[in-house]
């Protein structure tokens, strides 16, 4: 029998229902997402792309509460490696998302770096590698963001390593962590993205445990990933091929990841995200039910 993972709070997100955008005819309506995520047995959700769920705090609080759900985090994207010129647009986005996140009594803001190539067309937008100066901008910018988000909204930022961004591989993640202040910036470890980029989640948790502030649970199909890498596909088309798969069919094994996280002896959210954009509207719920059952078998 699995050991109870009593420090892990499991949830899911609009992403697991094929939701990537605030409004898209290929996505399920937000009411259906909320109904089904509750039906699948999850207690926690993320806001997803700002504008997908209602942005009026009173209405959202009512919709969430009547389904016995709670919000763990909101999400923003930013390109702070470009320097101080990015600050104003980043903070404008933060203002919208963090206000709603705080109003839902959540405590985290997930920060995703901007993409270096277009998510759909594979157009190269920027060099894949940052210069030394850009690494400096990124570290200082994230520390400033962490400080001001905490001081203004009472939220902790957790930076999300992501495929096709500048914080992706083990080398880049470790460089980022080594160059930022742990009192201001920590990590949202997405097990799927980290595996997609060649990283070992258990090793990262064991090595940088004090920097793990949040988890996204996701698995990669290694056979599809090998084709994606060989063909140089961007992340969007890779998802359409099914590179992110239903656990426990892929890697990394989530049981050892959750056990390693439990050993940190801190309360951690572990939010399921199975990228499936776009997907048939009836596909997500059965997967979500099976995934929740599987995570319970791991003790979560």
From TrEMBL:
Gene3D superfamilies: Divalent-metal-dependent TIM barrel enzymes
Record's signal peptide: none
Domain Xylose isomerase-like TIM barrel: 34-236
Pfam families: AP_endonuc_2 (PF01261)
PANTHER family in the cross-refs: HYDROXYPYRUVATE ISOMERASE, INOSOSE DEHYDRATASE
Protein name: 2-keto-myo-inositol dehydratase
